[in-house]
Amino acid sequence: MNTLKTAKLLIIVMFLGVYQTGCSQTKQENKLEKQVENMQYNELTPFEEYVIINKGTERPWSGEYVNTKDDGTYTCKRCGAELYKSDDKFDSHCGWPSFDDEIDGAVKRVPDADGMRTEIVCANCGAHLGHVFEGEGFTAKNTRHCVNSVSLNFVSEEQQKAEKTKTTSKAIFAGGCFWGVEYYMEKQPGVKSVVSGYTGGKTKNPSYEEVCSGRTGHIEAVEIEYDPSVVSYEELAKLFFEIHDPTQVNRQGPDVGEQYQSVVFYMNDEQKEITEKLIGQLEANGYKVATKVLKASTFYPAEAYHQDYYDRKGSTPYCHGYTKRF
Ligand SMILES: [Zn+2]
Asked: Which string of DSSP letters, residue by residue, matches 64-108?
């Protein structure tokens, strides 16, 4: 056993001795120790280790994030998981960062070894965060996550945006009623967001009624943000050709009109070439492809009631379905 491991074990043994904890606690600590060894976590300073691993507490008013109000996300110092949104942070004047809610599923509550309080740990790596208290009446949610600053990192909204653009590409497809195209595209791993909207027409900010009138020339389409390291444009384009019928002209299933025509709006030459290659493959297999390949122009998101239509209704598309074509 190397000295580092011995030191870690010593710390844990000391910790266990001081707090007189029972058998389950010992198991928990052993599990934690295993996690430390098995997973790639951020390296911790001795003080961070004292709080995060050994469940210590930083002095009140001493932490970096007691009074911060910037927009962003608080993440786990140890594993980087997103834990709290700045929107849920409030002033409790208790000397530690306070939140009245966590990001869904990010924080686990466990009975504290003191037998009275409820400890909160990172659901991903088990890092000690602090304690949660209820019924104090600070905010409408009546909950205070009292978190050690040292257990957290802060990622500002600007940093998040910069990070997102690095790993995000866009694609625009029109394959009939956007509800159905959005429904299937959202199920594809690597797709970060799908927005239903209008593009390819003459007017600015068209309404659904204007688009349906057929006078503006807009087409119902979806704008997809995706992570190219997870899913390629070619995979998305193939999926597009397989979730609608690319041989139908100016309609898709029961929806008839120019706003329902099949179009790939390419954002760059690479997307154009991939699309034309796939259309060539379909034609070689006997499909009379009606899909147009057009340069992308301004995309206007549709009204809110058109977004996530089927998921909100709890139903499935009536005009789209998956058919293997490649
Ligand atoms: Zn964590």
From this structure: TTSS---SEEEEETTT--EEEEGGGEE--SSSS-EES--STT-EE
